[in-house]
Fold this sequence. Notes:
The chain is an alpha+beta fold and 213 residues long. It has a single domain (42-212), classed as Sortase (Sortase, Chain: A).
Amino acid sequence: MTMQKSPDRLVSYLRNHKAARWAISGLSGALVLAAIGLLGYPFFTNIYQTNLQSRLAHQLATDPSLAQQFRNDAVPVGDSLTRIQIPAIGVNVVVVEGTSEADLMAGAGHYPGTPLPCEIGDVAIAGHRTTYGRPFSNVDRLVPGDRIILTTPVGSCTYEVDRAPFVVLPSDTSVVANTPGQYTLTLTSCTPKGSASHRIVIKAMMVGVPTQA
């Protein structure tokens, strides 16, 4: 009997307390707006990334100063550094210098302090999986033998995935440690999708030799 009366008491209370009705209405509206924001956030970040990629692609293709900056290891943070193509999963985006939150709005960024693309050592690149164009959305599908092509202002090179993707904690920076005497590439991204609790890592080795532009 008490359980049956409870809804009636609630209805009666709301009828007699306008402030409570307003509070519930406000809470409902806030929840709806929050839901819309969560659903719309990836959409708007993708639009932003698309526009930014257009500017970066134009810079990479036409800026005459970029080649010299690249040779001097002086490409400004946030500027075009290389194009990354991964045919197996349809990736084709410009990578900027830097991996800050602002830099990664481009979708993918090069870890400062690691070798430049196509140079000796471990080149490291981070990318988004669920926002800002999500270029690394499907890196978990890569398998040994899949190829990764980097095109810089001064040439290009090709790497080949040499082991299955694996997962580490964000604190494990050893995955981007240098590899003296070897031409390697490391890609990293958050995993699982929508979470930053871990990092998925892809390792690749250069095949052939770099070509000059």
